[in-house]
Amino acid sequence: MKFFKQWGRFMMMGTRAHAAWELEVSRTILGDRKRLVILGLLIIPILLGGFAFADQIAGTLPSFIGDKSAYSPAYYTNGIFIASILIGLCAGLITGCIGAGGGFVVAPALMSAGIKGILAVGTDLFHIFAKAIMGSVIHKKLGNISVALAFIFLIGAIIGATTGGMLNRWLYEINPILSDAFITTVYCLMLGGLGFYSLLDFLSARKSSTVQIEHGKKVEGADLGNLPKKLQAIRIPPMITFDEGMIPGGRQISCVFLILSGFLVGLSASIMGVGGGFLTFPIFVYVLGVSSLTTVGTDIFQIIFTSGYAGVAQYAIYGFIFYTLAMGMLLGSLLGIQLGALVTKVVPGIAIRGFYALSVLAGFVNRLFALPKKLADMEFISLSKSTSVMLDRTGAIIFWIVVGAFAVWVIGTFVVNIKKLKGEDI
Q1: Poorest-confidence range of 50-59, 121-130, 258-267?
Q2: How far is CA 409 from CA 98, 369, 402, in A?
């Protein structure tokens, strides 16, 4: 029990840091006319051409790119494109409201909408990459980036992303259902730990109104824990110096630990399609002992390269990305994050945290209920087809009811409180 609680806490810290990055990126994009024009140039052709010629295009695609055969990735339909916008909107609302990443529900949601797991992962990675490039705020954080730290970390991240991409593709080549089962199992573990921790966090917060969920009350990493002290005491050359502006002479850590950390981040990003940013913050601050200021800058830096490399080199060139879906999610998430952030000004935080816990647990239930059907299809377990289909549909229904209810509640709250948010009633 203690392990799962610590695992959930670790995941929650990462999702909060990643959500802060997403919120800053969305504000940068929507606050710049040039970026909005670029976004429009990407979206308008999809709206005009995709709706009109989707079926014709899908019918002419070879099987290794995306036709309607069982072995190929899910094909494009107008309904799936609209679903991608709604999925991005819901993920953005979660991110903006709670200040914790809603990206964990993207791949499960896409898979529930009929997208194969490997395609959901590749598409989500490309969506993150597009968002990072369009809303790049590296120039604001240059003073907080340790170039040496970032460079060594990215060596491990590239190796990890390559390994994760090769693993996903290898499993897909063996059996597409095996690939889906593997990705589903990974998400069950991740969402289970994060969801149950979020629920416990919500229940404990109801008992105390003084619980703080935000970082920033102190500089994380300024006071080293036992693990960072032990790791920094291991002098395996070459040693990398960082945080010179915070500690006289800075701190040092072996490049071995940086490469291993980068490998874990890149591997997770490439397998799950979540960019890796959710792991960088807790690893840097609570394992390596890097200050939060340096971590934030390095995290922004690595997300662009890790998601870009994994998305393009490991998925795009093999035909495992739907660019139309990626653009739909980008559009939906940009709107959702802004609405969610505004709603936090007029609703109690405890209610939002409760909805977040339910949303993550709904994603967990969705993948957990989908797993028996995949195992039965591969004949790993004995289960009747009607039972496996019923479980799969039940998980999907629960997921969409919970996430949909959250989205409706947030949007409804925003509409009702428009005057107050404009300051007319304040």
Answers
A1: 50-59
A2: 14, 26, 11
